[in-house]
């Protein structure tokens, strides 16, 4: 981790003795990494909604509002690539001891709650010395850039503005839970009604340094909201700062992830809802209906059977009329059956193709030189492979077969002849 501080002040004294070795940076454990990897896009999309809580004092008087909104957003990275991702927007404004204070948060996350970009700002309007703190996190070029800016005083001289830029390698931020990711992670825990046991995440303390963050389930409790009883799941988050005391916050969550109450341990006030929200439930996908094939006993139906007999008689009369109008067709079929019974070939299909082949309009011409490889009697389905295609081949003369054709009767092509066999 490297950092750069820009401020005006006294120069540091030369170190007289070597500094002791710094402790290794904190790392998230396997339980935390496994929990984050178990998240899915479908599960997170069920937790996209907005909610508003009221900030109340220890006496129950309202002092402000807290709004949290999670929605589907678009983020543009350095390569100008646009991607869909969870977008978390939260802001609060109120009065504490009659002093105006507030904060805002805008964060873009991956579907595993990794930080892409986050901007946060908090301020307290002290009567004499107002305070404002800004923090920006940006994932870029294999590292996480963090910029922290703090200014004090109503009229801010240049030396009272402190800006610190820190670069964290991405491998050291594995399991890091930002403020935006924490709001969505709590909804996931409420939706699953469980907290990963012994999970140790990473977070930023008040000084902007990496430290451990843990979650603990405190059980369930029934609270009253707008004269209605509601069951809440209590989760306590603790940020273990290495330089200060641990800071804990308790979240009272409804079954669908809505935040019913938020209590900062040691703070006199809290945030709570005043109206019961409509709880969201997971949509149950019903299996598609299965329509079984029912037998149709049409022979037993008088109307269907009558239609069948009428259609059968129409086809019989149509076939008879056609054969009467084309006696050459009947003669052709009779000749084919005669040759078939005389030769009795093993392959009837090939014999039929050779018999009716001379009647084809696109029959290739007989080669001048004989070949040991006989030509196939079947026509190619690919026109490019048909040697007679596109050459305007004339109808070849049929061999001497015993056909009783009338003078002037047009010839039948292969399709017409084969269609007669299907009757």
Summarize the structure.
Plays a role in primary ciliogenesis by modulating actin polymerization. By secondary structure, the protein is α+β, with helices and mostly antiparallel strands.
Provide key terms for this protein:
423 residues; alpha+beta; 15-stranded antiparallel beta sheet
Folded structure, characterized:
The chain has 423 residues and is α+β, with helices and mostly antiparallel strands. The chain folds into 2 domains: 25-272, no CATH class; 298-365 and 393-421, no CATH class. Helix content is 20%, strand content 34%. The chain has helices at residues 30-37, 41-45, 179-192, 302-325, 327-343, 348-356, 414-421; strands at residues 2-6, 50-56, 62-76, 82-96, 99-109, 115-124, 131-140, 143-152, 161-169, 200-204, 210-225, 228-240, 247-253, 259-264, 270-272. It has a 15-stranded antiparallel beta sheet, covered by helices on one side. A hairpin with a 5-residue loop joins strand 13 and strand 14. 18% of the residues are buried. The model is unreliable at 7-18 and 388-423 (pLDDT under 50). Residues 366-387 have a biased composition (Low complexity). Residues 31-268 form the Ciliogenesis-associated TTC17-interacting protein N-terminal domain. It is found in: Cell membrane; Cytoplasm, Cytoskeleton; Nucleus.
């Amino acid at each position: 981790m490297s950092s750069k501080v820009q401020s005006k002040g006294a120069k540091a004294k030369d170190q007289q003795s070597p500094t002791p070795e710094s402790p290794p940076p904190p790392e998230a454990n396997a339980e935390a990494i496994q929990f984050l990897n178990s998240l899915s896009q479908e599960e997170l999309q069920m937790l996209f909604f907005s909610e508003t809580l009221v900030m109340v004092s220890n006496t129950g008087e309202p002092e402000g509002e807290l709004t949290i909104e999670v929605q589907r957003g678009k983020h543009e990275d350095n390569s100008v690539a646009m991607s869909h991702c969870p977008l978390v927007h939260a802001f609060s404004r109120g009065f504490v001891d009659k002093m105006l204070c507030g904060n805002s948060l805008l964060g873009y996350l991956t579907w595993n709650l990794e930080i892409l970009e986050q901007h946060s700002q908090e301020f307290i309007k002290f009567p004499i010395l107002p305070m404002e703190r800004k923090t920006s996190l940006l994932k870029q070029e294999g590292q996480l850039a963090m910029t922290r800016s703090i200014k004090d005083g109503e009229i801010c001289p240049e030396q009272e503005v402190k800006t610190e830029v820190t670069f964290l390698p991405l491998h050291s931020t594995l399991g890091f839970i930002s403020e935006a990711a924490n709001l969505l992670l709590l909804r996931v825990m409420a939706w699953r009604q469980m907290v990963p046991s012994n999970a140790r995440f990473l977070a930023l303390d008040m000084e902007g340094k990496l430290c451990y963050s843990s979650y603990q389930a405190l059980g369930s409790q029934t609270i009253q909201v707008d004269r209605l009883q509601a069951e809440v799941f209590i989760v306590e988050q603790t940020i273990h700062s290495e330089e200060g005391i641990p800071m804990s916050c308790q979240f009272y969550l409804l079954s669908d992830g809505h935040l019913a109450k938020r209590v900062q341990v040691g703070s006199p006030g809290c945030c709570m809802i005043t109206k019961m929200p409509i709880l969201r439930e997971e949509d149950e996908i019903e299996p598609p209906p299965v329509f079984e094939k029912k037998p149709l006993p049409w022979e037993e139906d008088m109307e269907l059977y009558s239609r069948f007999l009428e259609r059968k008689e129409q086809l019989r009369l149509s076939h008879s009329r056609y054969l009467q109008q084309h006696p050459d067709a009947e003669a052709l079929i009779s000749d084919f059956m005669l040759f078939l019974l005389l030769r009795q070939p093993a392959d009837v299909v090939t014999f039929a193709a050779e018999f009716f082949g001379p009647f084809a309009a696109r029959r290739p011409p007989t080669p001048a030189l004989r070949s040991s490889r006989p030509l196939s009697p079947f026509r190619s389905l690919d026109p490019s492979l048909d040697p007679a295609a596109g050459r305007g081949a004339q109808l070849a003369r049929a061999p001497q077969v015993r056909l009783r054709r009338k003078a002037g009767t047009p010839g039948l092509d292969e399709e017409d002849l084969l269609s007669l066999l299907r009757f």
